[in-house]
Amino acid sequence: MENLSDKLIKKCIESFVMGLEVYNKPTIQYRIEGFSFFICNAWELMLKAELLNRGENIYYEDNPERTINLNNAIKLIYPDENTRIRLNLEKIVDLRNISTHFIKQ
Fold it and tell me: Model-level pTM?
């Protein structure tokens, strides 16, 4: 039987591939925004799988049916605020948030 971490990784790969497919279609007007949605989803799933592999909890303590969000997962995996990968991920999250709530100009 497949464990939760393996399921998250499979879904992560699918989301990453979808992000690349959207990004590589020049006829899609909002491809950067679409890419940011899928790449953030892929990273979130991958980081949650890593947390599970480390034996850490991915659920909110006050609501055990909800898993932590991407920002929380980034902070747990990359606690150093100056790590390049953390800084880059935070920029992509910002792009995704702008795309979700407004428009990217």
Answer: 0.90
